[in-house]
From TrEMBL:
Pfam families: DctQ (PF04290). Part of the tripartite ATP-independent periplasmic (TRAP) transport system. It is found in: Cell inner membrane. It comes from Gemmobacter aquatilis. This is TRAP transporter small permease protein. The complex comprises the extracytoplasmic solute receptor protein and the two transmembrane proteins. GO terms for molecular function: transmembrane transporter activity. Belongs to the TRAP transporter small permease family. The lineage of its organism: Bacteria, Pseudomonadati, Pseudomonadota, Alphaproteobacteria, Rhodobacterales.
Length: 184
């Protein structure tokens, strides 16, 4: 395999490993938010922000942890026939399914970027982007939506890059020069 492709796979693996390890700690943030919500409901006036903030923390945990989970091959998989196949046959099937996943993630990233642009009030006037009124949640707390939509964009991009890395890894296996790693 070309050196650039091996370098790309290694860089993406390293980056998603770091982001995934960070995302694991978001579970503790979520627990803290839910603990505060419980205490505030019992001891004094409930906080408006806890429900939405817990949802935002869970979305960040899930979206940023997805590429790391893919890297560790810990997604749910039906191994009834897959485990018995040769490495080459698994690479063919994986390359096909990863290609479909890349197309799907491309569409999701496009939609996430469009939604982020909307939340920033982005309009194009005379070929120049203009930022207008920022989108806010319609709840009582009314947080700005662009931070969580930015996290969605980053998460979809990281998942897309990890999928491309796996596609390159499958092609390398089919060519008889597998790229080691993936399960850091």
């Amino acid at each position: 395999m070309p050196r650039w492709s091996v370098a790309f796979v290694r860089i993406v693996d390293r980056m998603n490993y770091g982001v995934g390890r960070f995302a694991m700690y978001l579970l503790f943030v979520l627990m803290g938010i839910l603990m505060w919500s419980t205490i505030s409901k019992v001891a004094f006036t409930p906080s408006y922000w806890t429900l939405e903030m817990a949802q935002f923390a869970m979305v960040a945990y899930y979206i940023l942890g997805g590429p790391y989970s893919m890297q560790l091959a810990s997604h749910v998989r039906m191994d009834l026939a897959y485990a018995k196949w040769s490495a080459r046959k698994r690479a063919w099937v994986d390359a096909f399914t990863i290609f479909a996943l890349i197309v799907y993630l491309g569409v999701m990233l496009w939609g996430a970027l469009d939604s982020l642009g909307y939340s920033l009030g982005l309009t194009w006037e005379g070929g120049v982007p203009q930022i207008g009124r920022l989108e806010r949640s319609p709840t009582a707390w009314r947080p700005y939506m662009w931070p969580i939509k930015s996290i969605l964009c980053v998460g979809f991009l990281l998942m897309l890059l990890q999928s491309i890395a796996y596609f390159i890894r499958d092609i390398a296996t089919l060519r008889g020069a597998p790229i080691p790693g993936g399960d850091i």
